[in-house]
């Protein structure tokens, strides 16, 4: 055991990547994917606010049936020039997204909600990702793999999508879907989890 808790911990996510990241803390938890509807961003809404609200919707949907648990919800979006790039709906749309992101620096924003017995903590983590200037053939070939389809912005930095990336500034795990170091800090600071040696 790395961290310890007295809570019944639930990850409100269908993402195997988030499951792997939360698993790093070494505490038992269960996964309950919420089927909460992901609404599109509203006109004038900041991408940070949008990601935060969606993370809250996911956590709250699980809270209804598990009011005594500690619930973690997260949502990751890619944003550039005020436009949010969600998961692409098709290979063609993935290629369009990647053409727009080529050679430029975008923000990957994960909103995280920590919900416990009605008490809510939200935070957002932002990583700046700079893409290489991509040639058309590379974009088409990567999009055609289908890898972009379940990922915000249409790429996975942890998969072949890493070939598109020139540099990043900020937390890598945040790009993959969960800023686990910051999440651990927040839960530790609020006494929800602790290390064996921590004063309690
Ligand atoms: C930019 C980027 C995103 N992603 C992923 C992280 C998120 O899982 C996904 C964005 O979709 P989300 O809606 O945040 O999450 P999800 O649908 O995968 O899971 P759930 O809603 O059940 O929690 O994109 C990567 O895996 N790699 C990347 O490089």
Automatic annotation (TrEMBL):
This is dTTP/UTP pyrophosphatase. The keyword Hydrolase applies. Transmembrane segments: none annotated. Keywords: Cytoplasm, Hydrolase, Nucleotide metabolism. Belongs to the Maf family. YhdE subfamily. Gene3D superfamilies: 3.90.950.10. It is found in: Cytoplasm. It comes from Sporosarcina jeotgali. It catalyses: UTP + H2O = UMP + diphosphate + H(+); dTTP + H2O = dTMP + diphosphate + H(+). CDD domains: Maf (cd00555). Nucleoside triphosphate pyrophosphatase that hydrolyzes dTTP and UTP. May have a dual role in cell division arrest and in preventing the incorporation of modified nucleotides into cellular nucleic acids. The record marks 17, 76, 158 as: Important for substrate specificity. InterPro entries: ITPase-like_fam (IPR029001), Maf-like (IPR003697). The active site is at 75 (proton acceptor). Its main location: cytoplasm. Its EC number is 3.6.1.9. Its cofactor is a divalent metal cation.
């Amino acid at each position: 055991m790395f961290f310890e808790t007295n809570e019944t911990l639930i990850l409100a996510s269908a993402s195997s990547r988030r499951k792997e990241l939360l698993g790093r803390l070494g505490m038992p938890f269960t996964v309950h994917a919420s089927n909460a509807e992901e609404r599109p961003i509203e006109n004038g809404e900041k991408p940070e606010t949008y990601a935060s609200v969606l993370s809250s919707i996911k956590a709250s949907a699980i809270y209804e049936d598990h009011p005594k648990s500690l619930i973690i919800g997260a949502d990751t979006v890619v944003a550039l020039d005020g436009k949010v790039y969600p998961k692409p709906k098709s290979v063609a749309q993935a290629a369009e997204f990647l053409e727009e992101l080529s050679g430029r620096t975008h923000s990957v924003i994960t909103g995280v909600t920590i919900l416990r017995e009605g008490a809510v903590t939200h935070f957002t983590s932002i990583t700046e990702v700079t893409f290489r200037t991509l040639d058309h053939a590379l974009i088409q070939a990567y999009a055609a793999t289908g890898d972009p389809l379940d990922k915000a912005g249409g790429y996975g930095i942890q998969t072949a999508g890493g070939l598109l990336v020139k540099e990043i500034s900020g937390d890598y795990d945040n790009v993959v879907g969960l800023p686990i170091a910051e999440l651990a800090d927040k839960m530790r600071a609020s006494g929800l989890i602790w290390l064996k040696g921590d004063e309690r």
